[in-house]
Every structure is written in structure tokens, then in C-alpha cells.
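Q: How would the C-alpha cells look for this protein?
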Amino acid sequence: MKTNSPDAGLPPVLKLVCQVLDEKKAEDVRVLRVSEQSSITDYLVVATGTSDPHLRALRIEVEKVLDSNAVHIVGMDTTQESGWVVIDAFDIMIHMLNPVNRERYALENLWKDAEEIELGAILSPETHVPSPKPAKAKANARPKTPAKPRTKTAKSTRPSKSAKTAKPTKTPAKKPSARPPAKSRKRAAE
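A: Here is the predicted structure in C-alpha cell form.
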């Protein structure tokens, strides 16, 4: 069952989660209201990430949204490179899968009798919930000074270009020879 009308009764956090998934280029985001079919959650959000790094980035952003809105994360399965990330935020269960797992498990088909809420209806301006803004800097805060250029403290073992072309300024010290200088040898011979 699908619904196309914006629903003012949607939790603000659900809207923010969908917003961040949309902004971070998650593909095929689907929202299902499963409160009638499930005793463990009210909404399922299913999204596709294009790769494992993309899934990690999506998870981090969703986690930030949940944390900034003081939503308790009941559980999270983030097994590295499994291709499936699950975040349980009690009323909302978020599944982010890579394309192979999304097709293989087809979670939407398991919940055919759930009500699907169109993403466009959630993200429409009438239902738009602004993202939390970062805290403003204090009025008494000191302005940041520009960073000083870093200087090298350790010498590199590799000669620089200028070292290859420049002539050495010091001449190597001569070894003392066992023989006396040429002039003194002549006088000694006489």
C-alpha cells in the first residue's frame, strides 16, 4: 500500500534521517510504516549505498543525526564489508545495503502489506524539518591565529635538487702523508 500525501504525523527524526540519506546520495530510499505489522519498530528505512565506503559514510551521517537529536540507538550492526548496515533507533529501523544485498534480500517484499511513504512527501517543503545547526562561537572567544609554517627539524637522507647542483663550500681535509713535502726532501738530499 502506498501513500503519496505528506504526513504531518511523521517523527521529525525520520524526516532528518531521510534528508541526510538523500543529501549523501543514498539510492532508492524507501520508507515503510510497519507499526501495524511489527511489534519492534514503527518505521523501516531501506537505502542503497554504492560501495562499502559509501555505506560507512551513510552510517556515520545517520548516526550524527540521531546523536544530535538525542535519539537512543538501541543497536547497530556494522560488520566491516558485509554490505549491510543496520541501525536500530527503536521507533525507526534503518537498513543500508549495497546493491547486491539489496537485490538479494529485497526487504521491501518482506513487508508488502506495510504502508509505503513516498520519499518526496517526506522531503517536501511542507514537511521539511531543518537540520540542527552547529553551536555559535562565543562572543568572548579568541579569534584563531593563522598557523605558522612548519619547519623541518629532521634532515632528509635524500639530497635536494639544489644540493645536487651546488658545489660544496668546504674542501676536504688532506691526509697527512708519511713523506715530507717536496721542498724539504730536496734540502734533505743535499
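The two ends are 123 Å apart (CA to CA).

The first strand starts at residue 2 and ends at 3.

Upvote if useful.
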